[in-house]
Design goal:
The chain is of the alpha/beta class. 35% of the residues lie in helices and 19% in strands. The strands form 4 sheets. It has a 7-stranded parallel beta sheet, sandwiched between helices. Strands 8-7-9-10-13 form a 5-stranded parallel beta sheet, with helices on both faces. A two-stranded antiparallel ribbon has the order 3-4. Helix 4 packs parallel to helix 5, helix 6 (135-142) runs antiparallel to helix 7 (146-153) and helix 8 (172-181) crosses helix 9. The protein binds pyridoxal-5'-phosphate (PLP) and calcium ion.
């Protein structure tokens, strides 16, 4: 599939592009900064330029490792004013969904402390369990008693929802616990960030999507996904921001799966920036297909400012 480089458009085409959207969903890591730390030069001016041209900009990140407060502080020190309701991340979308459902019950949550705190601050009970595998059990397991393992994982907690985001202390034991709970069809199965890979210090490391997939496969059951690229997130964004015509929305991001394919599945226009997960050379490779080819490509967000 062919992609359009913004810089190669004629002045008229650039103007048409700028007039073709009212709302921008902007990814953060790889577009605005790297690892919530190194701001990408010119990002602040580019956001201001969009706003000066009458666009509403909403930030949609899969990062719930940092709290809303810390992320807003980072925006503020990066000279990008952002209202709390215009920063969307999985801990928030999941809390909003659960509130909307009038959810009651315990939540087993594999995520960062900030994520769990967000759920608690929203009025939910998150189980804090110690998941060390008792050595006695381990020995019995080696003896071949699978039933003992089952008993050890299963207890009678009224856990009514399992939430999977990124948990740096995830173990096979925890995943088994989730799997057993999710055999109950009434227990909700929810995922936040579902990236198969996430960026860390210039590397792409295994992301929580892989762990969600393990549990999905084990139980032959799909999670509701409230981070990118989840369909449930798309629906939530469309209703929260009262989107009537998805074509008037521009999704900007650096990830082919989490931003571009997600944006296309939602019916949005898509703009890929090359300051993150994808380099220009990948654009010619087989990585691109019908599902994930962006409508437009730009080297860095800052270049938007020189559009017209
Ligand atoms: N996915 C996870 C689980 C993360 O924690 C992060 C960043 O910390 C990201 C993805 C990347 O965030 P973004 O969606 O802003 O690119
Ligand atoms: Ca990103």
């Amino acid at each position: 599939p062919s992609v359009k480089f913004i810089e190669k458009l004629t002045d008229n085409e650039k103007r048409d592009f700028l007039n073709s959207f009212d709302l921008v969903f902007c990814d953060c890591d790889g577009v605005i900064w790297h690892n919530l730390y190194d701001i990408i030069p010119g990002a602040s001016d580019a956001i201001q330029y969009l706003r000066d041209n009458g666009k509403k900009v909403v930030f949609v990140t899969n990062n719930s490792i940092s709290s809303t407060k810390d992320q807003l502080r980072k925006f503020s020190t990066s000279n990008i004013p952002v209202e709390e309701q215009d920063l969307i991340h999985p801990a928030k979308t999941i809390s909003d969904f659960l509130k909307d459902q009038d959810f009651k019950g315990l939540i087993l949550c594999f995520a960062s402390s900030a994520f769990k705190q967000h759920l608690r601050d929203s009025g939910f009970d998150v189980v804090e369990e110690c998941f060390t595998f008792p050595s006695q059990q381990k020995e019995r397991l080696i003896d071949g008693s699978v039933m003992d393992l089952h008993k050890a994982i299963y207890n009678k907690d009224p856990v009514k929802a399992v939430v999977i985001d990124i948990d740096f202390n995830l173990t096979a034991w925890k995943l088994m616990r989730a799997q057993v709970l999710l055999k109950n069809p009434e227990c909700l199965f929810i995922a936040g960030a579902a990236d198969p890979r996430i960026p860390f210090g210039g590397h792409e490391l295994l992301g929580p999507g892989a762990f969600m997939y393990i549990v999905e496969e084990a139980n032959q059951r799909k999670a509701k996904v409230f981070g990118k690229p989840g369909a449930e997130l798309g629906e939530l964004l469309k209703s929260s921001f009262q989107i009537k015509d998805p074509k008037r929305v521009l999704m900007v991001g650096d990830s082919l799966r989490s931003d571009i394919q997600f944006g296309k599945e939602c019916g949005f226009q898509t703009l890929l920036v090359l300051t993150g997960a994808v380099e220009e050379k990948h654009l010619e490779s087989q990585q691109l297909n019908e599902l994930n080819s962006p409508d437009y490509v730009i080297e860095k967000l800052a270049d938007l400012k020189n559009l017209i």
